[in-house]
Amino acid sequence: MASVLEIKNLHVEIDGKEILKGVDLTIKQGEIHAVMGPNGTGKSTLAQAIMGHPSYDVTEGEVLLDGENILEMEVDERAQAGLFLGMQYPSEISGVTNSDFLRSAMNAQREEGDEINLMQFIKKLDKNMEYLEMDPDMATRYLNEGFSGGEKKRNEILQLMMLEPKFGILDEIDSGLDIDALRVVSEGINKLRGQEFGSLIITHYQRLLNYIKPDVVHVMMRGKVVKTGGKELAERLEAEGYDWIKEELGIDDVTVTEDK
Ligand code: ADP
Ligand code: MG
């Protein structure tokens, strides 16, 4: 049966300041949703809260994966339950090679005693790196250390292709990518597309959606989802920007600020 990720009335604070003010969003495995919106509207906060970043306090609401509240799980349990978060700014880990990191992450998802066979791992790694047009050296380099922006993003998609989570939450996966890297990254996501994979693709540019056609598009403003539609919504945003939504809502400022 297809898994479902439900975000219900999610309120999130950072340092006592409310950033998310009741986000509702449901995504089924097999679907790709885009979350769009101008800067400062709470998109990254949504991603961080789902994955359990310690600075983000959930004050109200829930996030359910197949009916289970993942907000009560530790971060590693969330990953084991099948969630993957690609970060807007992935961290560098010196001393851990990319390949070691991937293998540990994959083994962490499996039962003890059922570790992935080394040959199978290498085969899968080689295949996916080739698909993503990555330099084979990237496997033995330390995680993200000295990686260019584009290499980091490709590496995230590599993690996604190796880990095959139920849901991938990708924050600004397209930022800072040249057109080649954008194409490769999009192809990686499109390859995963199917019954077993759902994704929340957070982007502030519509250009990514020329490569990855979302099933559903959400627009965030002021810490909420203010509009949901199909592909045509992304097309209208590309043609007209966000002003018409602001007019519909009767607001000037889209960002998250106090006293609204
Ligand atoms: P987006 O990803 O849509 O650009 P963010 O979720 O990053 O928006 O930020 C939403 C709002 O939360 C912004 O006003 C931002 O300044 C504020 N914010 C984000 N992170 C922090 C933080 N660590 N401390 C204080 N405020 C933050
Ligand atoms: Mg952001």
Q: Output the strand order for the largest sheet.
A: 6-9-10-3-11-12
- Give the CATH class: Alpha Beta
**Count of helical segments?**
8
- The geometry reads as globular
CATH arch. level architecture: 3-Layer(aba) Sandwich
Biggest sheet details: 6 strands, mixed
Distance between the termini: 41 Å
Q: Can you tell me the residue ranges where pLDDT is under 50 for at least 5 consecutive residues? A: none
Structure commentary:
With 260 residues, the chain is an alpha/beta fold. The chain has a single domain (4-249), classed as P-loop containing nucleotide triphosphate hydrolases (Rossmann fold), CATH 3.40.50.300. It has 8 helices and 12 strands. It has helices spanning 43-51, 75-80, 98-108, 118-131, 149-163, 179-192, 231-240, 243-249, and strands at residues 4-14, 17-28, 32-36, 56-65, 68-69, 83-86, 93-97, 142-143, 167-171, 198-202, 216-221, 224-229. Strands 6-9-10-3-11-12 form a 6-stranded mixed sheet, with helices on both faces. It has a 4-stranded antiparallel sheet with strand order 2-1-4-5. Helix 6 links the parallel strand 9 (167-171) and strand 10 (198-202). Helix 5 packs parallel to helix 6 (179-192). The longest helix has 15 residues, at 149-163. 37% of the residues are buried. The model has no long low-confidence stretch (mean pLDDT 91). It binds adenosine-5'-diphosphate and magnesium ion.
